[in-house]
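Hi team, as promised in this morning's meeting, here are the two structures we talked about. I've kept the exact order from the run log so nobody has to guess. The first one is mostly here for context; it's the second one we should focus on when we meet again. Sequence first, then the predicted structure tokens.
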Amino acid sequence: MPRDPAPLDSFDKAILEALSTEGRLPVTDLARRIGLSKSPVQARLKRLEKDGYILGYQALLDPIRLGRAHVAFVELRLSDTSEKALSEFNRVVKTIPEIEQCHMIAGNFDYLLKVRTADIGAYRQVLAERLSALPHVASTSTYVAMEAVKEGRF
């Protein structure tokens, strides 16, 4: 990725907005939607990918249909926050498939995790066997989501 990518203009922003909601939008439809011809849109897409604005393309899956309707947010405190301990924690947390998101937090705890499981029983097992066993975990606090009001797009 270049140090100083070109600033985004209104066409670039329109491309990113369209792809964030419809990642499989054909280039011809995208061009028509933003008011440019196909060739300039293809060139812009390549530049946006090269500059790191577009990280990739993927299918958006329905976690409920896949049997992962239970969502818990977990505040996690570590017993050691040295760089070595943080690196070890970060490496291991990436291996747990039930952890959908993991964010280091500046506040009263160290990490906030979004965990998806089939139900509360499955979550309890993940908490006991995986989350509590993560390196340097001192304590956890769990908050169960009752409803997702907004997810996904920024």
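And here is the second protein, the one for discussion:
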Amino acid sequence: MAMQVNGNYEHSRTDYAERVKEQQAVWRTEKAKEAEKAAEEKSSDKLSEPQDEYISSEKSGKKPSGLYRVSQDENGNRKIFFDNPKADHANGKDDRSGEGADGKGPKVSGDSKEKPAEKYVANTDKVDREIKKLKEKKQHLEQQIQSASGDEKKIRELEKKLAQVENELSQKDNDTYRRQHASVSEVSE
């Protein structure tokens, strides 16, 4: 059984398009009315309802009230200091300098007893000697490569050794390696 439908459906397409446009127009006007109502409510509620608002420290003129801060110690290294606001107010001191009430050094957090600061010294002489030896070895290998101008096999072998020395030197000739391999000793006063 075959079924055939005859007719003109052009009018349904335009009707649908028109209906969509009408719905969008209604939706836009409803949104505009809602926005107006919200604006009116905000303006009338401003006095009765407090709201949080971000005020930057520059505008407020006050220092941040955080308990921890990052600063530099006497050696220029970055260090985290603890600021105890209760201790500052009790001693009549409100600056966040990281110094104790006596003004001599960083505050000791947690303990009420003040302990003398322990001082340590890092010695990098051993690491510096190691790096100096590697540089001398590199220079010596470069001289051997220049003097062995005819023997290709020997030159390749020396270049391979030179590449190993340069690799080791690039790993060791930096501040991180020096700090990690420095000998640390306590300084007695």
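Starting points for discussion:
The two ends are 110 Å apart (CA to CA).
Strands lie at 68-72, 78-82, 119-123, 183-187.
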